[in-house]
């Protein structure tokens, strides 16, 4: 977000206080453009390729001299190129300045055409072609809006929300159904267009109205002499519509019980202005006008939703623009006319829909819809409240640049086929947006841990002298994100421990720290491998029942080793000799160690029984969790010393799969498609979810259509108190759905 001052000069540094590359990022690698120009806002979209660092592991051939150091594997930081979508929103007043900046920094010469949509595309066509030297190719506005809407609903969790003005959390984010169709899109611009969307390529404009945002603006200007739309809304926010509107109680002296009409219901908009011999304030007239327009649009939307049997109604367009007042009046109208049967749904990125759709139309040769995309929190402004008295960090509506960045993911993400109710699945256990005490604690916790993260980031790159400078930039950026989330916790959807962790990972990647815990994991894995055979031998000497208890305690003991948990990292820093047996003793009875000495012996036991095992691990690094690349090497080494693991791999009874995640937590609605296919093909009937991030912060309440086991050690004293336990207490949650026969195939997610 960058604040702008109004200037006539075309020099960028005078109109934008943040460095320009914080807004128009990576322009030198931009390949194609699209633009959506409305009555007052311009939305620019472009595609770029981004170079970033990734941590790679490579196994040593231990039969050669290459392995003289006896290292388990080699860690190298390599450069990869990925695709990124950039979306920037700014006032039309700055369009010429921005076009000049783009022209001066655009290196790629292959781009010949810019896709354009919106009412202003014709007005600014000559300017765009002259400034950028690109041919403007105009696209249909409604089809762009719908294409953009489909894209954000499919790719951005918590995109849709219900607005509740008087609730503890004004934004209540919705779980997106895997099947987003059908839905009703009500676009409120100058007028109103209503479209029924049935599939990716099938939609129909089924109605509309000439009474829309232009009506509010035009009549408002005549009534109040106020020419700016946002100023008109500011007036309305301070007004009392009952001074102008005739209410039911003004006619009947109270409610009209026979018809079920309350006394405060509007009987006639502006009804008092015809008879009252007085002047009405601008604020009161603006408020009355807003209610009149909103009620008309709300009733129209409800009628079309009922006529076409649609329960999902999304609102967008210039009239909405994220204003709390307009969202509240629309919500009230929908609730009244449907008696709560239909909810008014709004979108975090509704302002970008046209630009996204226009871009997608120009990028069809690359088929962006075949990939999954994820919001890059490090480069996105997030949803901000614009209520004038909502938060001290609220932004001014005029002169603001908003940014949204979407990164193309390496693999397509889908639902876990074993989710019992995918449409109602909520990954996160606690919504910090609504739980103020929990929010304050976790924000403090993440800020308090920042010094340790910076220290480990620098230590992970000892041969790079500039690492300390980059780490300091990371600190500043992430701290700013935390401060923003303190005042606007809804910025990236529901605020959760998972989203705080993900935001931190995005910021680390932004400054080329792909795996700050790589050295720690390598050391832990190397030590743990030396103890593996000893642990297996001690387990084999136990009776069957004692062995089952020991296996579970081993998994839980391994789970104690978590450098991301402050209580644990404090112990590990102060006592380097703290080991596996000490960890088992820490467990309340009333990475490396985790996977090798905890999970792998359990895998071995399951294989010995004839069970097929699918071992799913992270695709990318997160804290000290094992990645799929590391797990492949570790399993090879274990198989070389353990015939049970070796035969499991050889006979395809042990399968290692990426889960598509780069987070310590786990969203079962966004898993690698390959994992979902294996789960389905193997007819998996037991899912074991291990770890505090995956089984406590997320999925604690997840219901599956098969047996499940969630186990973790509580490594946070505050959370332990919340759950009624003590630090290092154990969660062991076994759930069995009714009527499911066992088929002896298990999925483990360490």
Automatic annotation (TrEMBL):
It catalyses: (R)-4'-phospho-S-sulfopantetheine + H2O = (R)-S-sulfopantetheine + phosphate; (R)-4'-phosphopantetheine + H2O = (R)-pantetheine + phosphate; (R)-4'-phosphopantetheine sulfonate + H2O = (R)-pantetheine sulfonate + phosphate. CDD domains: ASKHA_NBD_PanK-II_Pank4. Keywords: Acetylation, ATP-binding, Coenzyme A biosynthesis, Cytoplasm, Hydrolase, Manganese, Metal-binding, Nickel, Nitration, Nucleotide-binding, Phosphoprotein. Its cofactor is Mn(2+); Ni(2+). It comes from the Eukaryota. One of its GO terms (biological process) is coenzyme A biosynthetic process. One of its GO terms (cellular component) is cytosol. Residues 452-583, 589-726 form the Damage-control phosphatase ARMT1-like metal-binding domain. It is found in: Cytoplasm. Pfam families: ARMT1-like_dom, Fumble. InterPro entries: ARMT-1-like_metal-bd_sf (IPR036075), ARMT1-like_metal-bd (IPR002791), At2g17340_3_helix_bundle (IPR035073), ATPase_NBD (IPR043129), PanK_long (IPR015844), Type_II_PanK (IPR004567). GO terms for molecular function: ATP binding; hydrolase activity; metal ion binding; pantothenate kinase activity. Phosphatase which shows a preference for 4'-phosphopantetheine and its oxidatively damaged forms (sulfonate or S-sulfonate), providing strong indirect evidence that the phosphatase activity pre-empts damage in the coenzyme A (CoA) pathway. Hydrolyzing excess 4'-phosphopantetheine could constitute a directed overflow mechanism to prevent its oxidation to the S-sulfonate, sulfonate, or other forms. Hydrolyzing 4'-phosphopantetheine sulfonate or S-sulfonate would forestall their conversion to inactive forms of CoA and acyl carrier protein. In the N-terminal section; belongs to the type II pantothenate kinase family. Belongs to the type II pantothenate kinase family. Homodimer. Interacts with PKM. This is 4'-phosphopantetheine phosphatase. It comes from Nothobranchius furzeri (Turquoise killifish). The gene is PANK4.
